[in-house]
Design goal:
Blueprint (H helix, E strand, L loop, with lengths): L2 H15 L6 H17 L4 H15 L2 H4 L4 H17 L15 E6 L6 H14 L4 E6 L6 H12 L2 E3 L6 H14 L4 E6 L7 H14 L3 E7 L4 H14 L3 E5 L8 H10 L3 E5 L7 E3 L2 H8 L5 H11 L2 H12 L5 H14 L2 H7 L14 H12 L3 H5 L6 H11 L3 H23 L1 H12 L3
Parallel strand pairs: 1-4, 1-5, 2-3, 2-4, 5-6, 6-7
Antiparallel strand pairs: 7-8
Helix pairs in contact: 1-2, 2-3, 3-5, 5-12, 6-7, 8-9, 10-11, 13-15, 15-17, 17-19, 19-20, 20-21
Length: 444
Amino acid sequence: MLERISDKITDVVRQISGKAHISEKNIQDAIAEIKLALLEADVSLRVVRRFVNRTTEEALGEKVLRSVAPGQQFVKIVHEKLVQLLGDSRQELRLKGPDTLSVILLLGLQGSGKTTTAAKLAVSLQKAGRKPILVAADLVRPAAVEQLSILAGQGGIAIYKEAEKDPVRVVTRALKTASRQQYDTAIIDTSGRLQIDSAMMKEIQAVKKAASADEILLVADAMTGQSAVDIAKAFDEQLDLTGVILSKFDSDARGGAALSVKSITGKPIKFIGIGEKLDDLEPFYPERIATRILGMGDVVSLVEKAQSAIDAREAEQLQEKIARASFTLEDYLDQFRRMRKMGSLQSLIELIPGARGAVDESRIDEGEMTREEAIILSMTRAERLNHRIIGPSRRKRIARGSGTAVYDVNKLLKKFDKARLMMKKMTRNKKTQAAFLSQFGQGA
C-alpha cells in the first residue's frame, strides 16, 4: 500500500537526512520533490498547497538551518505535517457501554466494498469483546442480503434479515430485536447505488432517522483516489458523517484518498481494509501511516500482528525446541500458517524499519511458501516429526503427492536443516542474532 508515494518521498528523505549542512535551496528542492510526489499520488491540490506552505514555513526557520542535525530536523517536520494531514491521532468508534445498544450506519456506493466491510467490522468488534449483530438493510442490490448472510456465517456473527422491502421497517424491527436479545452493537448495511442520487439519499436519511445511529461511516474505495474524497464530501453534506472507512487500501499504491479525506471533509478515517479476509480490517493510525510513507517501518503494527498470531506460551515452547534441536517439520509447517495469519511477506516488510528498499522484494517468492507447505503436507506424521527417515523412495512419493519434483523436496530438506542450525546458534549467541538480522536487512 502507498508504494508509489512512499518510494518517492523516501528517496527525498534519504538524500537530505544524511547531510551535515543544508541550505534553503536544499529544503526548497526537497519540498518541490515532495509536492510532485503528492500531486502524482492524486492528493487534492488544495491539500498539497496547504502542506507545502506549512512545511516550507517551518523548515526554513532558524531552528532547522542552524540545528546540529538539520537533515533529521527536516524529516521530523515532514513527518509531523504528514500526521496532521492524515488526521493527527487515532479516532475510536463512539460506542455506548455493553448494556446499551450502539448503532453503526454504513453508507457507500455500489462496488465500494460496503457489505464486506460491514462483516469485517463486526468480526473486529467481536474480537474486542462486543456482541455485534449485522442488519441487512441493502434491499436494492440483488443478492446483497445473501452476501451478508454468507459473510456473517463465515465470521460467526448474528444477522437480522427479512423479506420486507422497506428498509426503515427492517431497521426498526432489527433494533428492537437486537435490544431484546441483548446485542450491544448493530451494524446496518444500507443500500448503495452506482452513483449518488436523490432517491438513495432520501432513503438513507429515513434510515438514519429511524436508527438514531451513534456512528455514520462512509465506506469509500481507496483505489478511486480523489473521487473517494469527492464522494465523502457529498455524503457528508447530506448525512453528516462521523467518519470514513477506506476499503481496498492494500491495493492503493498512490494514497491520494488517505492523504486528502480528513483535510477536505474534516472527518477522520477510522479503519482501512487491507485484504479480502474478514480479519483484514485495521484501525487507522495517522502517525503509523506517516511513518510508513517515510520508509521508517511500523514496529508497533508488526508487534500487534505477531501477538495476534503467536501465543506467548507457544513462543516459549518453540524457543525451547529450537535450543534442544528438536524443532521439526511439523513446527515448521505451524510457523508457515502463523506467518500467513500476519499477512503477505511484502506487507510485513513495509512494517520493518529500514527493510523497504533494502530488501529486494523481487526475490520474495510467496509461491515458494505454498510449494513448501504442499511438500510438508504430503509427508506422513512420522516423517514430519523426524525428517531423517526420508530416504530416496520417500522423497519420490512426497514429490508425487505434492505435485513437485524430487529436487524441490531435497531443496526444502536442505533449507530446513540450515534453518535449524541457524536458529539453534541464534538462541545461544547474541552476535549471531544481530548478524542474521543484519543479513536480512541487506536483502542477502
